[in-house]
Amino acid sequence: MTKILFLDRDGVLNQDHGYTYKTADLKILDGVIEGMKAISNLGYKFIIITNQSGISRGLFTIDDFHNFMNRLIKVLSEHHISIFDYFFCPHHPDGVVSDYAHICPCRKPKPGLIFQARDKHDLDLSLSALIGDSESDILAGKNADIPLNILLTDSSFPRDSKASDIAGDLIQAARILEKFN
Questions:
Q1: How confident is the model at residue 1, as a pLDDT?
Q2: Which of 67, 72, 109, 141 could be cross-linked to 146 through a Cys-Cys bond (beta carbons 3.0 to 4.6 Å apart)?
C-alpha cells in the first residue's frame, strides 16, 4: 500500500502572506526541499490539503488558486519532488461568493479533504501521516484517524494541541517520520 504524507500548504510549504494566491508571492520555506526529499526517501507520497477561504470571500478565484498550485508543483519538481495530488476547500460560511458561502464537510478541521483523497486513490489512512501548522490541520488528521499528526511550530509544544509531535521545519519532521516507520 501507498504511504501518504498529507501536507497543509500555506505556512508549511510556502510563506503564508494571508490569502496567498499570487504566483509572484511564492516563497518556499526554509527546510522544505531538504525535508521533502528526506521524507520521499522514506517512501511517502505527498498530498497537499488546504483551506482556501479567500475564494469564498471573493479575494481570488479558483483559477488563481490552481495557477499558484501549478507554480508550486513546478518549483518543487525542479528539485525532483513530486506532488501526488492536492485537494482544497474553497468554502467559508462568511463568504461573499454564494456558491462557496456555506458550511461544508471538507473545511479543516473536518476530515473531508482527507476522505476525498482516500476515496480517489484507495488509500489506507493507517499508513498515513499529516503535517500542518495549525490546530485545525491536526484535528483534521485526528478526525480521519491518521496515526501521526505533526504540528509545525517554532515554539514549545502547545499545551492544548492534539498533535502527536512537533517540529520546527520539515527537516525535523522527516526525523520524526523516520522513527514512525
A1: 78
A2: 141
